[in-house]
Write a structure and sequence with these properties.
This protein is α/β, with parallel strands linked by helices and 353 residues long. It is built from 14 helices and eleven strands. It has two domains: 4-160, Alpha-Beta Complex (Spore Coat Polysaccharide Biosynthesis Protein SpsA, Chain A); 169-352, Tetratricopeptide repeat domain (Serine Threonine Protein Phosphatase 5, Tetratricopeptide repeat), CATH 1.25.40.10. It has helices at 17-24, 42-48, 62-71, 92-100, 169-182, 187-199, 203-216, 224-237, 241-251, 259-274, 281-297, 312-324, 328-339, 344-352, and strands at 4-10, 30-35, 52-55, 77-80, 85-87, 105-116, 119-132, 136-138, 144-146, 151-160, 305-306. Residues 5-124 form the Glycosyltransferase 2-like domain.
């Protein structure tokens, strides 16, 4: 049976490293931790848990640090986690199943928790985390696995709360800018820089990089749907509605099974029509159709996006729309549909009525 090392690079993670290691240690054969300059108790906590600990002098390259950490693993395969991530359950069997199915890079579902407009959300991305030792990374930040091996989706789910009430954009933006100096036409890094500016609510700057990425992106890339939706979202936030509508018209067929697209379209139309003095019933029906389409599609299990875009989020917005139109019964129905998923704003809205 092949062995597996859990590999982490860390810095000042004393509040989260124990949770990370405890969640994964029964799923692997070895835990390797590389510290890049902690000034807190991160190393002490990790060592007390029996890990193999190493130090690495930080050089502003996550790829270099990852590759050094991988070189210290003694197992046949490695699984990559960050200290602010953790396994939902024991995945030893799922890891072995992936390994036994042949040489392939394992794609893992990562659920990110974040706050937006005072509301908690979860966003799903798929990340390459499980691979044979010897596989390497490239990139100063948002580093990418370099391998000719095929990619296969696993049944492993990782939870991540590192962006909850934490602003990492000030650290990320300079590193991404350096990466883009070296690779000015790399759509992935342009996309990531757009996301970094979006997290700072600098939508005009985000649009600049999203537009460049959008012009270069290959539609087969797994992040392509998310890029398009985030670009439309930022155009809406910066009141560039006509430009956003043109992209929506162009991409509707490509994203016909993506609830995030229709939700973002509905939000853009709401903002657009609310800025016009002569909106009418037809405008409201167009918005309504977007949120109903989200519910028709339902939640997606294969594309990156925000949890709830195919269920409680459009239901909540339909409740708001019907309440605005004075349709109490319809509003109550959709508030209840949304609240059934535990969405607190819908519960409050329904009870307040």
């Amino acid at each position: 049976m092949s062995t597996v090392s859990l590999v982490l690079i860390v810095k000042n993670e004393e509040k989260k490293i124990k949770r990370c290691i405890e969640s994964a240690k029964e799923s692997v054969d070895e835990v390797v931790v590389v510290d890049t300059g902690s000034s807190d108790n991160t190393k002490k906590i990790a060592i007390s848990m029996g890990v193999s600990m190493f130090d690495y002098k930080w050089n502003n390259s996550f790829a270099d640090a990852r590759n050094y950490a991988i070189s210290k693993a003694t197992s046949d395969w490695v699984f990559i986690l960050d200290a602010d991530e953790y396994f939902r359950q024991n995945y030893r069997q799922e890891i072995q199943n992936h390994i036994n199915n042949g040489q392939a890079i394992g794609r893992v579902k990562v659920v990110n928790t974040y706050e937006q407009d005072g509301i908690m959300h979860e966003a799903v991305v798929y990340s390459l985390r499980l691979f044979p030792k010897g596989t390497r990374y490239e990139g100063r930040i948002h580093e990418q696995v370099v391998s000719d091996l095929p990619r296969k989706l696993t049944k492993i789910e990782v939870l991540h709360d590192g962006y909850y009430k934490v602003d990492k954009s000030s650290r990320n933006i300079p590193l991404l800018q350096e990466e883009i100096k070296s690779n000015p036409n790399d759509p992935y890094y342009l996309y990531q820089l757009g996301k970094a500016y979006q997290s700072k609510e600098n939508y005009l700057e985000a649009n600049k990089y999203y537009q460049k990425s959008y012009m270069l992106i290959n539609r087969t890339e797994p992040y392509a749907p998310s890029l398009i939706v985030q670009y439309i979202h930022c155009l809406s936030k910066s009141s560039q509605f006509v430009k956003g509508l043109k992209i929506i018209e162009k991409e509707e067929r490509f994203l016909s099974s993506y609830p995030d697209f229709f939700f973002t379209k509905g939000i853009l139309l709401m903002n657009y029509f609310s800025s016009k003095p002569n909106s009418n019933l037809n405008d409201l029906e167009l918005i309504e159709s977007c949120f109903l389409q989200c519910l028709k599609i339902g939640e997606t299990n294969t594309l990156e996006g925000t949890v709830g875009m195919g269920s409680f989020l459009p239901a909540y917005n339909l409740g708001l729309l019907y309440e605005l139109c004075g349709l109490k019964e319809k509003a109550d129905y959709y508030y209840q549909q949304s609240a059934a998923h535990g969405f607190k704003p819908a519960e409050k809205r329904f009870l307040r009525r």
